[in-house]
Amino acid sequence: PRMGNTDSLPSFPDALGLTGETGPDPQSVCEQLRTANGDAALAGPCCQALWEMTVDPAYFSRLLECGAVEEVCRCSNRHPTDEAVQASACGFLAGVSIDPAGKQAVVQAGGLSTVCSAMRRHTGNPDILRECCGALANVLQVKQHVGLAVDCGAAMLVCAALEQHPAQLRLPRAAAGALHAIAATIGGCAALVESRCSEALVPALRRQPQDRQLQGLGAATLRAVAQSSPAGLETAGQA
Q1: How far is it, in rounded angstroms, from Cα 153 to Cα 157?
Q2: What's this model's pTM, rounded to 2 decimal places?
Q3: Long-range contacts: 50-53, Cβ < 8 Å, 24+?
Q4: Distances (CA, A) of 123 to 1, 40, 186, 228
Q5: Is pLDDT of 238 > 60?
Q6: Torsion of CA 176, 182, 188, 191, to 10 degrees
């Protein structure tokens, strides 16, 4: 399932004058982003324009061909404190990683590190954290990527996001998707045990009992952690 949030995205390609006869042009937006990479005021809308394109799977191959993933990661790393850039960049990474080739492109571009850095810096912004969790949930559907995310501290960061924003409606589902993906490997489960994921996840499940997707992801994660090791069983049981 898509783990990003593109419900209210404005049509930035139109505003930037980057819409061609057949719709927004990823190549033109990427070129604009390269030119404006030092200007957060323009880089943010460019990232959001690319994010908007991920709503349509027909754009995936064009986004990858023009190097959009690399440009967005570079932009995010250059403007680490700008919340507009971070939200749009991480939203784009969440959207493009719906595509199998997009998952690989995000990893190759250092996107997991980019996402985790955003989570560390913007702990008070649930919108950024939601998109980061969505990106992790999508990319880590490939088990081989879980170890890289664990090395970046993803398990701890996702658990912290859950604990820090208990009243959020959309963040818990994205976070649960990320935790479920991390729990697909033994190493991931060990990281979740160390991060005390049950203490963050169980309260979130109790707050939103009507959210079936959240409940399913959460229950599967707790089950995987409990079955992974005696320490996992103890952690899940304590929660």
Answers
A1: 6
A2: 0.89
A3: 50/26, 50/88, 50/92, 51/4, 51/6, 51/9, 51/88, 51/89, 51/91, 51/92, 51/95, 52/6, 52/9, 52/10, 52/11, 52/12, 52/13, 52/24, 53/13, 53/24, 53/26, 53/29
A4: 25, 20, 27, 29
A5: no
A6: -40
Closest CA to 109 of 156, 63, 45: 63
Find the mean pLDDT for residues 117-132: 97
Measured between alpha carbons, how far is 239 from 226 in angstroms, rounded to an integer? 11
- The structure tokens 């784009």 sit at 92
Give residue-wise pLDDT tens across range 22-33. 567 999 999 999
The candidate with the shortest Cα–Cα distance to 62, out of 35, 28, 86, is: 28
As a three-state string, the secondary structure of 90-111 is: HHHHHHHCCCHHHHHHHHHCCH
Helical pair 197-207 and 171-182, crossing angle rounded to 10 deg:
140
Residue with tokens 């990683």: 97
User: pLDDT tens digits for 68-108?
Assistant: 999 999 999 999 999 999 999 999 999 999 999 999 999 99
Which residue bears the tokens 């950024």? 128
CB 65 within 8 A of CB 106: no
